[in-house]
Design goal:
Elements: H1 2-25, H2 29-55, H3 58-91, H4 94-105
Helix pairs in contact: 1-2, 2-3, 3-4
């Protein structure tokens, strides 16, 4: 069981380093968002699972579960915001921003406050 935990930690760490390198190597913001959200999510979840295996107690599993829920609920939002900012920068005008804001305002259940 210990070798599995260390394997998950090392594998997650290697994947996290590769994702970090992708932030410097990939050509544009839309490509970099994949490295920063998708690979980082898998890497951090793998590392946390290895840590929980090493901890062994239910308290560790609750902590890892809570952190994983936070990651899976915040990273899609940050990915969306990165894509939106990149789209505005690519167009280089406020016309896209106005169109995006109007699209969001027209969605059901969204208040314009």
């Amino acid at each position: 069981m210990t070798w599995l935990a260390y394997g998950l930690i090392v594998g997650g760490s290697v994947l996290l380093v590769i994702a970090a390198l992708g932030l410097f190597v990939l050509p544009d913001a839309l490509a970099r968002q994949h490295a920063s959200t998708k690979a980082a999510t898998v890497a951090l979840t793998s590392t946390l699972a290895g840590i929980a295996l090493l901890g062994g107690t239910p308290e560790w599993w609750w902590r890892v579960g809570a952190i994983t829920v936070v990651l899976f609920s915040t990273l899609p939002v940050s990915s969306h915001m990165l894509a939106r900012a990149a789209a505005r920068e690519l167009v280089g005008s406020d016309a896209l921003g106005t169109a995006l804001d109007a699209d969001i305002a027209s969605t059901p259940g969204h208040s314009a406050d």
